[in-house]
C-alpha cells in the first residue's frame, strides 16, 4: 500500500469500516477462494453473507434496505480489501457499482422497489449483458433485437450475448438490445429475470484467468419482457450507458490498482528474503530501480484514482476522466505484475506463488469494460480529435 500519508481522502469512519471489511474477507471469503477457482464460480452464500453485513450496494437508500451512504470511498475499501485478502475475481463490485446503478438511476420507483432489496441482501445476483459474438467495442453493431409485442404490453427479445460476468448465476440481467430497425443508435435496456421463458444460458466459458468469476453466453429466444421491466426510454440506452460507464471504469481502475499494489507488496517481501550471489535479490541495483520506479508510478496513479473517487462523489466524474482512470490503472497493473513476476524468477511461473495467477488474472483488465484502445478514443474525442465518422 502507498504510505497512508499519501491518501488524504479517507476519514476515521472509513478506516473503521475497513477493519470490519478486512476481517470479513480474511475470515469468511479467503478460505473458500481456492475451491471457487476450481468450481468456476463463487458460492451464492458469499453474496448473502456480504449482503447481511451491508457490504452490497452500500450507496442504496434505506427505503430499499440499504445503508443510504452514497460515498464511493466505501466501495473502494471493499474492492481493496477483497483484492488484497481474497481474490481479484470476486465481483461484488460488478453487482454493486456497475449493474445496480442502472436500476437505481435509470429505473423508476416501482422498479427500484422491486429489484433493489434482493440485490442489497444478496438473494439476487446481478449481471449486465452488452457484448455479443459480433459486437464488443462497436456496440452499435449489436444484433440482439427487441420488438414491441402486438398488444403493446411489452417487448419480444431475440439474440445472444457473450462473455457475461456472473452469467451463469445471475438472477437479474440488464440486457441491451436494439429497438429500431432504422437507427442503430436506438438501444433499450431490458431487465431479464431468471426463469423467463426463452431465456437460456450457454456454457460457462473457459478463460486464461479469473477462474472464480463465472463468464457465460446468454441466449434470448422470443423472450417476452413486460413493459414494466424496461429501464428508462427504450431508445436512449446509449446515452444511459455512456453516463454509467464512467463509474464502471473507475470501479475497474480501483480494482486494478489494488491488484497492482498487492503484487508490489508481496514482491517486496519476496525479494528481501530470496538470496542470490550471497545477497538478497532486492539488493541488486536493478531490483531497487525497478521497484522504485513502480512505487513512484503506483503512488501517482493512486492519487489520481482517489481524486476520481471524490469527483464521482461530487457527481463530476465525466466519461473522459473515467476513461483516463481505467487506462492508467489497468496499464500500470499489467506493467507492475509483469515486472514483479520477473523479480520472482522461476517461482513466479509456478501456480503456488500468487504472482503467477495475478499475471493471468490481470490480462483482461486492458480488454474489458471497454478496451484501452477505446479509452484512448474517448479521451481523444474529448480533446476534439475525431477520426473518420461513420
Ligand atoms: C472475462 C470477461 C468478462 C466480461 N464481462 C462482460 C460483461 O459482464 N458484460 C458485457 O457486456 N461484456 C463483458 N465482457 C466483454 C468485454 O467488455 C469486451 O470483450 C470488450 O469490450 C472488447 O470487445 P471485443 O471482445 O468484441 O473485442 P473487439 O471489439 O473485437 O476488439 C478487438 C481489438 O480491436 C481493438 N479495437 C476495436 N475497435 C477499435 C477502435 N475503434 N480503435 C482502435 N482499436 C480498436 C480493441 O481494442 C481490441 O484490441 C467481458 C469480457 C471478458 C473477457
Automatic annotation (TrEMBL):
Record keywords: FAD, Flavoprotein, Oxidoreductase
Range of residues in the leader sequence: none
Pfam families given in the database record: Acyl-CoA_dh_1, Acyl-CoA_dh_M, Acyl-CoA_dh_N
Domain Acyl-CoA dehydrogenase/oxidase N-terminal intervals: 12-123
Cofactor annotation: FAD
Acyl-CoA oxidase/dehydrogenase middle domain residues: 127-223
GO molecular function: acyl-CoA dehydrogenase activity; flavin adenine dinucleotide binding
Residue intervals of the Acyl-CoA dehydrogenase/oxidase C-terminal domain: 236-383
SUPFAM superfamilies the UniProt entry points to: Acyl-CoA dehydrogenase C-terminal domain-like, Acyl-CoA dehydrogenase NM domain-like
Origin: domain of life: Bacteria
Family: Belongs to the acyl-CoA dehydrogenase family.
Name by which UniProt lists this protein: Acyl-CoA dehydrogenase
Organism ancestry: Bacteria, Pseudomonadati, Pseudomonadota, Betaproteobacteria, Burkholderiales
